[in-house]
Write a structure and sequence with these properties.
194 residues, alpha+beta, Chorismate lyase, seven-stranded antiparallel sheet, globular
């Protein structure tokens, strides 16, 4: 096994995960408020949602984008469906200087070279630049924890997370995991109402 990258952060540890069948049947997250359920389980663009919520453009801080010989520990099972060699990209998403999300994505190397030419821009913007149709399938809902997330978000976890795949012409393009800051409660209200 190849050594882990010094730049890539380890995938956060799941404390709880919804069963796949519940996610696919829209039964997961029953305790979530409606706004959080739409953000986590809807098929819309989270970067677009962050911009709409805050009224500010989404800025991307690229952590790392490196080759990964095989899916590392904690990678979603769907990563195994991507053609090798793999590339993993990690970013922080900010609006107005406030970090609102962290994301990691796995790509086939050739697909990444084709679609991620501007590596400091949100993936959605890169993929839709040519107005090509995409299909997003949400495959996972979880609560995760990592000390580096707590430090950057300025809050104790656990944090809500989801992962999904993009498909183009029926073929899997990428697997993306996102983790959201509790700071989003400012716009969405409490994730789990009392």
């Amino acid at each position: 096994m190849a050594p882990a990258s010094a730049l890539l952060l380890p995938s956060p540890s799941p404390l709880w995960q919804a069963p796949l069948a519940e996610v696919l049947e829209a039964q997961a997250g029953q305790g979530l408020s409606g706004a959080w359920k739409l953000l986590l389980l809807g098929d819309g663009s989270p970067t677009r949602h962050l911009q709409l919520l805050t009224g500010l453009p989404v800025e991307v801080d690229l952590i790392a984008m490196e080759r990964e010989p095989a899916a590392g520990p904690g990678a979603p099972a769907e990563v195994a469906e991507l053609e090798r060699p793999l590339l993993r990209r990690q970013v922080w998403l900010r609006c107005g200087g406030q970090t609102l999300a962290w994301a990691e994505s796995w790509w086939n190397q050739a697909e990444a070279d084709q679609h991620l030419r501007q590596r400091d821009q949100p993936i959605w913007r890169s993929l839709t630049a040519g107005r090509t149709e995409l299909y997003r399938e949400v495959d996972g809902l979880a609560q995760v924890q990592a000390p580096w997330l707590a430090e950057r978000f300025g809050a104790a976890g656990p944090f809500w997370s989801r992962h999904y795949r993009f498909f183009r012409s029926g073929r899997e393009l990428t697997v993306i995991r996102e983790v959201f800051s509790p700071a989003l409660e400012r716009w969405l209200g409490a994730a789990q109402p009392a």
